[in-house]
Amino acid sequence: MTQTLVSLEGVSKAFGPIAALRDVSLAVAAGEIRGLCGENGAGKSTLMKVLMGLVRPDSGVIRIAGEPQTIRNPRHAQSLGLGLVAQELSLAPRLSIVDNIWLGGEETPLIYRMGKLRARARAALDALGAQDLDLDQPVLDLPIGQRQIVEIARLLARDARVLILDEPTATLSDVEIERLMRILKSLRAQGHAIIYISHRLGEVFDICDTVTVLRNGAHVSTGPAIGQTRESLIEDMLGRSFGEMYPAHEAGTAHRGGVAIEGLAVPGAVHHLSLFAPKGRITAIAGQIGSGAGAVNRALAGLEPSAQGLVLIDGEKLTLGSAPASAAANVLFVSDDRAVEGLFPDLTALDNFIAADLRAHATAGLLSWKGARALGLEIARKVGLSEARLGSRASTLSGGNQQKLLFGRALARETPGVLLMNEPTRGVDVGARADIYRLMRDLCARGWTLIMTTSELEEVVGMADLVYSMYRGRIVKRREGEEIDLTAILTDITHPMKDEAAA
């Protein structure tokens, strides 16, 4: 029989009156990849913190290789063969690869540049197919995909048999994702147990042997991945039907105008691109990472100084290369990196709602906090944010609620404009995605022009009224209505016809 490497039995944990975990049981065997799914707040992170000794459970039993353990701290978890690769990587960028592999390790002596430790680090990297990485190379010089390999090598060098990966592909390119999947399959074949946490359900079905779903801190289901459907998994996660995920594409009121782009060029990214995004509709620009799709929205937002071409918004010319000019034209941008380019993390949710349009809430240069709060309450209700959260710092909110702050800025505008969205649901759980999709449709009904880029083709098919597929900086296909098909779009963006790709 296959050995169970880690198990939790009847684990519960409460923070004050809030029950984060309620009688949760989970067991993962050697040579198994277990998917762990659930909305933000379902209990996934708390459960992993319990395993890593960061949180002490109120009740329950943890067994490692069959032996009951009280895990005191992360170093103790490491000694038991447990390892975590968090969504936010924990590497020291200015240190070398070998330094990072042994930094904070239980076995690391005061003077640790020893042949034995270097050999183990080299062996761990080689086992992951990273023979090309130089142990003395600074991590700062590595792309994000190779940094993640170093994180995994750190665990292998320390003899981790149970690997926990939290949203491991959130910032990876398709090529890097494929490499990671090969690595995980190799580790499974070597007898490791892997707990794989992801909001990307396609990956869960591709890589996982079994899937466990948590909801509201409780265990909902566990079963073979091969026996489930995307619809049934989402229903377990949400507690409601899959049909409620994507709102209907209603025709609504006809709106005149939109965004017309002619001959847009961004050096090294976009080549002579032309398209039309109608008002009151969602236009998706589909393409792989590196296709130039994201650069189109960044150019319209004024974030590409070298952008050239003609852009008309409702017939009015937009000045390219100027973020203030785009903002003045009522063009809002939702970045794929909301922490750096979207939010004011240390300001409150209310401050973030009104930050992009302070003049609308000021008289003679003085802010009207009474008016701003009244608007904040209204917007919070529309986006589904608890009123009690208006005074919370943005950095303390979940990924889904942070994204709602960015969409709330558009809802706060009286005049419809253009909303540009790069990866609008990145790092957002399934439940919050349904809320964001509803907000997108609400903005369409109000007369906004929405232009979306996303690497998740299911999102394209579920939300877009019009799709432009990009390949190597050029539009290769336009699809609308019933032509919007997942397989066809995937073909467009990966293997376009030669004459289309060269057009």
How would you characterize this protein structure?
This protein has 503 residues and is of the alpha/beta class. It has 2 domains: 4-243, Rossmann fold, CATH 3.40.50.300; 258-501, Rossmann fold (3-Layer(aba) Sandwich), CATH 3.40.50.300. Helices cover 33% and strands 26% of the residues. The protein has helices at 44-51, 74-79, 97-102, 115-127, 144-157, 174-189, 201-207, 230-238, 293-300, 323-328, 338-341, 349-354, 369-383, 399-411, 430-445, 457-463, 486-494, 498-501, and strands at 4-15, 18-29, 32-37, 59-64, 67-69, 82-85, 162-166, 193-197, 210-215, 218-224, 258-266, 270-278, 282-286, 308-313, 316-317, 331-334, 362-363, 366-367, 418-422, 449-454, 466-471, 474-480. The strands form 5 sheets. It has a 6-stranded mixed beta sheet, with helices on both faces. The chain has a 6-stranded mixed beta sheet with strand order 16-19-20-13-21-22, with helices on both faces. A 4-stranded antiparallel beta sheet has the order 2-1-4-5, covered by helices on one side. A hairpin with a 2-residue loop joins β9 and β10 (218-224). The chain starts with a strand and ends with a helix.
